[in-house]
């Protein structure tokens, strides 16, 4: 009987935590730490399983929604343009495609049509250039724009020492004398802002920092001063043919040399194959009745010699 009573007491103590003598049986610190650690591990496993499940569901939904997504409108229009080039329906316009993503297996600058184009990367862009227009066509279009710009221009008609009464009196193309403005300044002086104000005048052709190829300095060397004066005179008189090769080559790699000249740069973006040709630039420049120039690299003493030219 005593053995049975002891067994019942032990069972009761396990269930209630109270010993036969009435004392409460407590867990040791080690047991509590072990139990807490197990709960934390189980909680982490549950969280990990939940995260994996949600991530998998998101991936499946993403795949399902992109399986039959239609081609974006920009790519669809570009695809149509490329297809037109293949059939010759653009009348001589060239479409040049470029890819910004490497490793696509096609190579940069390639042109695609049909299904291969539809599988192209989203970064693909298509630029249409007019390759059939001649220099005469471009000049005629710009000449018409200048006429519109100058429609309400108040011609000097004897004021300020300028006798011009009509557009032809100011355009070098028609043996006229343009109104020339020269800004000689230093860095951080607001000269770029002033140059942009002059460039806002109708019919203005802007020579922005034409001495950029001399470096970031004011020109003091006598030989460089002579070359700088020669280049500036050539530009002010629209002569890109007179040993201006270095200037044009520099501009090809530093396009901001032309970008500030908005009227020229607009044409350059449409007809890039003409943009750096001396023959084209000379004739294009002579269309404009107003000519402005801004430079921070020329010394005032050197600029004085430029202003002494009575032409």
UniProtKB/TrEMBL annotation:
Region named Disordered: 20-39
Domain of life: Eukaryota
UniProt GO molecular function: N-acetylglucosamine 6-O-sulfotransferase activity
UniProt keyword terms in alphabetical order: Membrane, Transmembrane, Transmembrane helix
Stretches that traverse the bilayer: 46-64
Keyword Membrane: yes
GO biological process, one term: N-acetylglucosamine metabolic process
Statement: the UniProt record of this protein carries the keyword Transmembrane helix: yes
SUPFAM superfamilies named among the record's database cross-references: P-loop containing nucleoside triphosphate hydrolases
InterPro entries xref list: Gal/GlcNAc/GalNAc_ST, P-loop_NTPase
Name of the protein this chain belongs to: Sulfotransferase domain-containing protein
Annotated source species: Glossina palpalis gambiensis
Lineage per the UniProt record: Eukaryota, Metazoa, Ecdysozoa, Arthropoda, Hexapoda
